[in-house]
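Justification of resources, computational component.

The compute hours requested in this renewal are based largely on the per-chain cost of generating structure records like the one below. Each record pairs the submitted sequence with a full structure-token output. That output is archived, and it is also reused by downstream analysis tasks.
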Amino acid sequence: MFGIYGINGPVFHGRLEELPAVRAVVRRRPVEAIGTTGNELGEIAEKPMPGMAPTGTSAYRRMAHIDEERGPLVQAQQIMQSDIITVRASDDVVRAWQTLTGHRIHQAPVLDESRQLVGIVGERDLLTALNLDGDSVRDALARRVADVMTSPVVAADPQTDIRRIAQVMLERDVDGVPIVNERQRLVGFISRGDVLRAVVADPPLSLWR
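The structure output for this chain reads:
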């Protein structure tokens, strides 16, 4: 099952087939770019920062509680990252940028003051309000995360089929899907990389009906 969460709370909860009837997710309030997007970041190091989910096969298996004896991987909760880096909608764009680059991630779920999911923000979103000088922020527009984030955002239940999450990523052109439990609390995050790692490093992954 999937849900759509925005600044006014949940606006949808239902099956994948019902998602096309819901309006497309959009940036909260787009702003004019003051810098050039592209290769400002350079290559992102693959080594995780302290506190981040490990990416090695054995460590990743322990993090995701994956047991080859139990059968094929089919649900979001089996591959999601539960050590989630988030930003607040009220954070300024410089602070959010520092959070992403400091943890070497490309995007992060956005929470409101009550820690409810309201959106997602990525490097490209933040670069519409930032001007970089090498790796440092040279200047920035007076914008908050709420001004540039993508909202509402598509989220999935922990029991959602991994293949359906991959389908949402392709159809909605998003790089990650937050995982929200029955209490509407953020409990995990699945990126394209998590799906690819599951395919490459953690068989058996069921890719057939």
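Residues 29-61, 63-70 have pLDDT under 50 and may be disordered. The first strand starts at residue 2 and ends at 6.
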